[in-house]
Amino acid sequence: MNKNVSLKFIEEYDINMVEETVQSIIDGLNFSNVIKPKMKVLLKPCLPMSESPDKATSTHPVVVRALANVLSKMGAQCIIAESPYGKFSTKNLEDVYLNTGMLEVNNLTKCELNTDLRTHTFETPKGVMSKNLTLLQIVNEVDAIINIGKVKLDNQLGYFGACANLFGLVPGDMKTQMLNRFETAKDFNNCILDIYDVLKDKIVLNVLDGIVSLEAGNTQRMLSCIGVAENIFSLDAAMVDVLGLGYKNTILRQARERGMFEFDKSYKLIHERIEKFVVLDYAVLEYNENTKLHTDTSAQKRYYKRIQCRPTIPQNKCKGCGICSKICPTGAILMKYDKNGELFAEIDYKKCILCKKCHTACPYQLVDMITPLGYKKFDKAINKYNQEKGE
Ligand code: SF4
Ligand code: SF4
Q1: Can you give the residue range of the structural domain that contains 143?
Q2: How far, in Å, is the centroid of ligand 1 from the Cα of 286?
Q3: Mean pLDDT throughout 89-99?
Q4: Residue 40 and residue 176 in one domain
C-alpha cells in the first residue's frame, strides 16, 4: 500500500485555508479513481463526548466541513457517523453532533448525520481479542470510509491518532463493556487492530487534525498541521515522529507484531519535511503496552459481569424457524411452544457462552445483544464504588 504521507502547515481553523489544503492534497493523490460520483462515503471524525471544539478533544468541524466540501465536488454522498461514549441513543447522538459542531457542518454542506442505531456484527476469524465485532450498521452500508482522527494523548492508549479513532465505530454502551474486558493497553490496541482488519478495504483515506492537539494533562498544544495518508499506520508513524513518542510506545508496536506494519519502512513524506513540525518538548504520558486500563480490575469485572450484553429473543416476535437453535454451539437455545401452539426460541443463559452466533444468524434480526442492567445503572454502580474507595 502507498506509504506517502502529506503533512501541511496550517495555523488556524480557517475554512478557506483548510479546504484549499485538503483539496491540494487530494488532487495530488489522484483520488478521482477512488471516489466516484454517487458513492456513499462515511466521514468518521473523533467525537468521543459532547464537548465544544474549543476543548480540542474532538476533530474540529472545520476539518470535517472542508473534507465534505471537497468530496461533494467529486459527487460523493457524505455521511458523518460516530458513536460517542455513553448510551447509544438518538438523543445522545444529537447532543454530540450539536455540541461538537457537526450539526453546523450538516447545515453548511450536503453531508448527512448518521442517527441510525442499528448495529452489524462482523466475523473476525483473525481477531486477537474476539472472533466477532459489533459496529455501527452504517459501516456496512457505505462504499468507503474516510477516517478523520485527532492528534492527542489518551490516558489509556498514550498516543491517540488515526488507528485509535476507529474505536468510535463501536456502539456507545458496548465500548464500556469492551474496555472492562481488557486488562492492558495492549489488549485495547489489539481490539482497535481487529476493527481495522474488518474495515481496511473500505478505509480509503486517513486524516489527522493536528492544528491544535492535546498533550499530557489535557493541555492544548498547537502543532499547526494536518496530516493525510492512504495508509493508516504511515500516518500515525509520521505523527508519532512529530511528537517524539517512539513507535514502541504506541499501537504501532502491536501492528508490527501482527505483520501489519514495519518500523523501518514506515512512511514517505511528500510536500514538507518532518523537521518543520517536530516538537521537542511535547508533554508525554507515562505509558507502555502493559499499562493497566483499570485500577481495580476485580471490581470492574464484577460490574462488567452484571451489565454484559447477552442475546435476547422477544418471544412475541420470534418466527420459530429454529435457525438460531441449530447454530448455537452449546445447545443453549431451546425451541418451545407457546399457549397458542406457536414455536418460539428460548435461551438458557446458564449454557450461553456469549458467542453471538444467534445474533448474526437470525434471518429476521430478532436476537438483540442487550445489557440486562443498563448503562445508567452501571455508571452509578461504578461511581458509588469509587466514592467508597475515596477516589
Ligand atoms: S450467544 Fe452463542 S451460546 Fe449464547 S445462545 Fe447465542 S448462539 Fe448460543
Ligand atoms: S432464528 Fe430468529 S426467528 Fe428463528 S427461532 Fe431464532 S430468534 Fe426466532
Answers
A1: 4-276
A2: 40
A3: 93
A4: yes
Q: Which of 86-90, 101-105, 298-302 has the lowest mean pLDDT?
A: 298-302
| Residue minimizing CA distance to atom 4 of ligand 1 | 352
Please state, in angstroms and as integers, the Cα–Cα distance from residue 349 to each residue in 5, 311, 331, 332, 352, following that order: 50, 9, 11, 7, 5
Ligand 1: atom nearest CA of 324 is 7
* Ligand 2 contact, 366 CB (< 6 A): yes
User: Does the pLDDT at position 155 exceed 70?
Assistant: yes
111 and 153 part of one domain: yes
Q: What is the dihedral of CA 311, 313, 319, 325, to 10 degrees?
A: 40
What CATH number did the domain enclosing 366 receive? 3.30.70.3270
* Cβ 63 vs Cβ 151: under 8 Å: no
Within a domain: residue 340? yes
Residue 126's pLDDT band (cuts 50, 70, 90): confident
Query: pTM of this prediction?
Result: 0.75
Report the C-alpha gap between 255 and 178 in whole angstroms.
20
Other residues' Cβ atoms within 10 Å of the Cβ of residue 154: 17
Q: Looking at the structure, do residues 253 and 318 belong to the same domain, yes or no?
A: no
User: Is residue 95 located within the same domain as residue 146?
Assistant: yes
Q: What is the rounded distance in angstroms from the CA atom of residue 287 to the CA atom of residue 147?
A: 25
Q: Is 362 in the pocket of ligand 1 (CB under 6 A)?
A: no
Question: Which triple of cell numbers denotes residue 252?
Answer: 504501532
* Cα dihedral 341/346/348/354 (nearest 10): 160
Q: Is 330 close to ligand 1, i.e. is its CB under 6 Å away? A: yes
Closest CA to 14 of 57, 68, 62, 79: 62
**Residue 384, in any domain of the structure:** no
Q: How far is the CA of 324 from the centre of ligand 2 (A)?
A: 6
**Distance (Å, rounded) from C-alpha 105 to C-alpha 39?**
19
Q: Which of 149-163, 214-228, 273-287 has the lowest mean pLDDT?
A: 273-287
Q: Nearest-CA neighbor of 370 among 214, 180, 173?
A: 173
The residue contributing the CA closest to ligand 1 atom 6 is 358
